[in-house]
Please model this.
Amino acid sequence: MAVLTCRGLTKKFGSTVALDGVDITVEPGRVVGLLGPNGSGKTTLIKLANGLLTPGAGEILIDGKKPGVETKRMVSYLPERACLPDWMTAEGLMGFYSDFYADFDRDAAAGILSRLSIEGKQKIKHMSKGTREKVQLIMVMSRRAKLYLLDEPIGGVDPAARDLILDTIISNYNPEASVVISTHLIADVEKVLDDVIFISHGKIMLAAPADDVREQRGKSVDEVFREVFRC
Amino acid sequence: MLGKLLKHELRATAHTMLPIFGVMLLVSAMANVCARLTNSPGDTPVVLMIIFTLVVILFGAGLFAIGLVTVFIMVRRFRDNLLRDEGYIMHTLPVSVHAQIWSKVLVSSLWYAASSVTMVLSILLVSWDVDTIMEIGNVAGEIIRAMTREDHVAEMIAEVLALLVLASLVTSLSFDAALSIGHSFAKNKMALSVLTFVGLLVLGEIFTYYTLGKGIDYAALRTVDFIEGWRVTCAAGAGILLAMGGACYAITAFFLKRKLNLE
Model:
């Protein structure tokens, strides 16, 4: 069964159409790039999958179920912005995630924190912006989830940190799970993608395995993206 | 999961609330010392007099402000934790919206009660000397003895306490409902929350007027004895609070579930 299914998914904000009849499926064990320029509907789609928004029409299913308490147990979500409570410490956060998620691997989280020399007892508010983003990613990737939804995980960080983040994602996710990475920085993520979904103005422009795209067009996914979304 | 939410909610609010209550009690103790030292103003240096006066003013202001500060912190906590960035974490936890609301309402009510206790303790601390405390104890004992000589007094006290608890829960829910509506808009979220709160207050007054003012037959009430009348009034008050609390709860749950608009 597909881990993420959208059928005729539509979402409007006033008169603005954010998603317009989107049909996609994400199969288990795939790393999928949800690729599109700013304002194309990527974040809206991810918010709908997390139950943070409700669809105007159509449906979105996680492992065959509508977003709700049950699906939130399966989904590990990295929001676009750092949103950790700043009064907590990294250790406190591990306690928080352990309490609410049965699939949270505390040892794994502690191991990555230690490898990245992040003090467990340091408060979030005393960390740099980059360190906060890393801590949030560590919490998200230390769950043994069925579906990881990562919204712009490498947006706003320097190129060296991007490699570290991608390495953290690829070396920590549950191999039977699916990972959806939303980004417009294609060149950086291309190497880790199994499938690509191009989205523009709320419509799916292309959904195919990354290798097929490269083979059929004789170009990298990044080059195809630039061609499709040329201004 | 409600238990876990309550645990984290208590932890998150305690690190702000406990120091505030601690400072209030400390200022009360200092005000007590100052009041004793300034008993004979002629012997006290002017600088010390100024400091002592400031401490006493601080005590008065603190006593006045502690309830408002508690409300402000609880409102801010609901907004920041569920309607701003932290909402991305809270609303993706595998817990229901109902558990989220209950955890906020119960913990807020607990802190409202704690601020009342702190106010009483502060007054006791500032007036602390053995004779005064003995006198307060004697007066309180006399009041309790006088009250318990009468029938139904214990029942009446329990009813008043229950109404106070209910009123505290409803107050919390009305703040939450106003914030949830105000933050469903794209802009001016706080201003619209305040306007919504005022609107809810007006609606509450209208509802109370038509239920308590028009809905009770006061002529008939005069024919029954005092206790019977008291019971009817308390039941009506509880009914109104439950109706208003239920409406605010339903509004909050609807807006958090269907109209969430995180920044």
In short: The mean pLDDT of chain A is 90.
